[in-house]
Specification:
Elements lengths: L1 E5 L6 H9 L16 E6 L3 H9 L4 E3 L2 E6 L14 H9 L3 E8 L14 H31 L4 H18 L12 H9 L7 E8 L9 H13 L2 E5 L1 H8 L3 H10 L6 H12 L2 E7 L3 E8 L4 H8 L1 H5 L1 E8 H7 L2 H6 L4 E3 L9 E7 L2
Helix pairs in contact: 1-8, 4-5, 5-6
């Protein structure tokens, strides 16, 4: 699963990416410092892994991971090619969700492509370019779908219906991410279009070091906007997080304490991005490793087993499952079994976030 970092130039995207991934991507105070997208892998912090290790000694912990893509800054007119816009928009099309970085700090030391700081204007600039690009894509596809539908083609008729609904929304200046279809074929067609404004969005408010919790007026405007859209905001001081990412554990803890934070804001961001993608974790635990595995919300036990190996799904028999809270209470898997808290689940079981699993299979 991939999340793409987008925003106007010079709002802190690459600085944020560097802090998230420690990848050393170029972060410069001029537009289009990033042209080709940088890609990094990010661990999703999860304290439950440490909890499991307290009771099941193991050689290593393996966190769930996300791919983060740092996409070059978009500018006004990107949908018509301004600032290499068409190329950058194609990079967004390939990700599963969007982390929209918005500048929420004043200061003249970092230039702003629009000449002033206004987070709502910046959000609307990006939204407008994405909607215009989608509208071009939909208009181009609709004509072809209509010709196909006139021949009596069932799939063509479905696409015409989906594309028409998308066009009407986009023409009204609204993204299509809220669209749903009762017809499974229509939903499949909609997802296959990979429209830019169909992707879930998490706003990342890049705040000043004096407003780490995002309580200032600029961030509050973004919070209000996100609330209207049913979305969320994570305040992050990209400059501070970049400095924290370069420290060892002891110095990092001291610096966090000095600014009144319990953990880096990037931990909250990684968890929020994970949730945004509609995925969750389950765990396997043994002497070699305690590991978090990523599955879509709603995945069944065989599907979850298949994430480990396709043979596990193909030959699935049953799963033995308990919760992290059970392990904390009973201290061992043997005690969990003795207390009757080790559940035996079959093929129809829908996974819950935080399940600890042993899969039984036969191939």
């Amino acid at each position: 699963m991939e999340a793409g970092i987008v925003g106007l130039p010079n709002v802190g995207k690459s600085t944020l990416f560097n802090a998230l991934t420690a990848a050393g991507a170029l972060a410069a105070n001029y537009p289009f410092a990033t042209i080709e997208p940088n890609v990094g892998i990010v661990d999703v912090p999860d304290e439950r892994l440490e909890t499991i290790r307290k009771f099941i000694p193991t050689e290593k912990l393996i966190h769930a991971q996300l791919r983060i893509v740092d996409i070059a800054g978009l500018v006004r007119g990107a949908s018509t090619g301004e600032g290499l816009g068409n190329k950058f928009l194609s990079h967004i099309r390939g990700v599963d969700a969007v982390l929209h970085v918005v500048r929420c700090f004043d200061g003249t030391d970092v230039t702003h492509v629009e000449g002033s700081v206004d987070p709502i204007r910046d959000i609307e600039t990006i939204d407008t370019e994405l909607m215009l690009a989608d509208l071009q894509s939909v208009d181009g596809s609709l004509d072809k779908a209509q010709r196909t539908a006139r021949t009596g083609d069932k799939e063509g008729k479905v696409r015409v219906d989906v594309l028409t609904k998308c066009r009407d929304l986009l023409a009204a200046g609204k993204p299509v991410r809220g669209l749903t279809f009762d017809n499974p074929d229509a939903m499949k067609a909609f997802k296959g279009m990979q429209l830019l404004t169909a992707k879930s969005v998490l706003y990342v408010a890049n705040v000043d070091e004096n407003d780490l919790r995002g309580e200032g007026p600029l961030t509050q405007k973004v919070r209000a906007r996100a609330k209207e859209e049913g979305g969320a905001v994570v305040p992050v001081c990209a400059k501070l997080e970049s400095e924290l990412s370069e420290l060892d554990a002891k110095d990092r803890a001291e610096m966090l304490a000095s600014v009144g934070l319990e953990e880096p804001a990037l931990s909250s961001l990684a968890r929020a991005a994970y949730k945004l993608l509609g995925v969750q974790s389950y765990f396997t635990a043994g002497p070699k490793e305690v590991r978090a595995w990523t599955v879509p919300v709603g995945a069944t036990a065989p599907q979850a087993a298949g994430v480990i190996h396709t043979d596990f799904e193909r030959g699935f028999i049953r799963a033995e499952i308990y919760g992290v809270a059970d392990l904390e209470q009973y201290k061992s898997e043997q005690a969990i079994k003795a207390a009757g808290k080790m559940r035996v689940e079959g093929k129809g079981y829908v996974m819950r976030d935080g399940d600890v699993c042993h899969f039984l299979f036969n191939v």
